Amino acid sequence: MLEIKNLKVQVEDKEVLHGIDLRVNAGEVHAIMGPNGSGKSSLSKVIAGHPSYRVTEGEVLYQINFQPRNLLELAADERAREGVFLAFQYPVEVPGLSNFIFLRSAFNAAMKHHGAPEMSEDDFRQFVLTKMKLVNMKEDFLDRPVNVGFSGGEKKRNEILQMAVLSPRISFLDETDSGLDIDSLRIVSDGINRLRSKKNAMVLITHYQRLLDYVKPDFVHVLAGGRIVETGDASLALELERKGYDWLLE
Amino acid sequence: MKFADYAPQFDRTFPLTNPQLSWRQLLCNPQIARKLEQWRGLPLREVTGLELARAPMKQKLSSEIEDRIRSSFVQGFQNLVLWNGHFQPGLSQMQGPVAVILTASADENNMAAERVELHCRPGEKCFLHLLSGHDLGHHFFNYEIDLTIPNQANCQVLHSCKSTGKASLHLGRLAVAIGTSASLEIVRQQDLGNDEFDFFRTEISLADDANLHHLALIKGGQLTRHDIELRLRGDRSLARASGLFRLDGSQTCDHHLTTHVQGKNAVTDQLYKGILDGKSRGIFNGRIVIEPSADGASSEQLNRNLLLSGTAEADSQPQLEIQTDNVKATHGSATGPLAGEEIFYLQSRGLAEEKAKDLLTQSFMTEIFERIESSALKAAARNWLRRKDAEVEER
Lengths: 250, 395
What we know:
The complex is a heterodimer. Chain A is α/β, with parallel strands linked by helices.
């Protein structure tokens, strides 16, 4: 589904990714772990098309209509409409824009792109209410401004709600577990698990094993110094929890 | 005749009852006014050089114009019409909770303003729609409206300023006295053409426990100057003032707001926002004076401007003058473009960059509309906004 080849990236003339190779197939869940400043969030933002990052080398092949296409040639919004999703580490607050209008505009943009009719306001409200149950959100969140006045946990749930509404093919979840209490972590993890299918793929970026207790990854990668330095199965995360990262960086 | 050539006549005949010095300066000698602080930065040369005729004597309007005016009436409101510089009793709904007295007619032979007194009847809830405008090009119009809201009355006013878009100059003044425990919510929505000049002055005084919300919505006109003077005379009086201008091209809008807080425990809360595109220029000059008598007063003032182009300009001057202790006062100003992170966030959800910017611009305005308490006025304001959006899309 997605193949990253020798990806080198600069931000403000400083190289932050020094040649990333990663292949993600449909149905797989990958976890990327690594010390602070290793480039995990940069990787997810580059895939989503953040304009601050400049790709200097490499490509990101992504299947669109059964053909591999270099994702880097598409604008951020085009990538999203083709099913690429980034759950933000720090979801952005948008005063004045209601969650409902935001979600419906995004959903209808994708529908239009795929040649499907837009959903009416009433139908969309019913649709989104079913999705809100996945992350245990109350209806009044729909009419509040996007992420404004939300607690840390509510913001992360709102990200998963957007993911549920947009049904992306590949999702990068950037530290979705950070700042969550035990109950919120369980709710968010349950939501992620329910959205997991053989048709989509997920890349979880995390510092901690605890998210992986709920969402079992097929592969775990360690990103350090802008490179993937180790890849293994779920047991690698347990090993990292015990031993830290130093043994991989020596 | 150029506007500047009429100037000497204003000194004798323009009957402003409580004119600020700056208005006298402009009207009596616009050539000199250009250099004064009150008018600094405004393209007054364009005004003084305008070829303008005085508003003609009152004439019957064509049935087409009358139909257009009637189509702008707001259901549930008492609709009063000032058209082509004259009050139009035949078109206006004279029966209603607001009594109307025409006290002076504009005259072709001098600079006299059309003057109308409006009196809300005590104990009644008044919904008033003032519709002012014209269908004549290259004229100037002046009118004055005095509105009295008696004790404990409740009044909602929509003031729509419309035109056919032909170059003209509007001089207007609205003076309001709000009685004890009375309340007023007023929305002035301007909808002028790109070649028009609008100089409007609002003076509002509040008695004890009076409550006001004043909102100015401005989107048209080559040059708009809105002077607002609020006097919180009464103890515990509350004045909320809001404004929104949405400019593009080479339009200029100047909000000049002066607030005198005089009553004990009086409160004022002010939010003015500007959205500027093209080479437009927005000015906010807000001065709050908390006078020695205003023990326990509180005031908040915020001006925020959104620059949609690199050539638009916002000048913001919030000012606070505190003449007593035991008060709470804050003020602030912020100007900048749309936040890149917000645009990216919306794009990352599949919204095209233009759509993302449009939604964020709408969101910027939402706070202003949420301040409107009356559902009828809120609906009218949202209609005003929708018309503006349609114009932007057409372009």
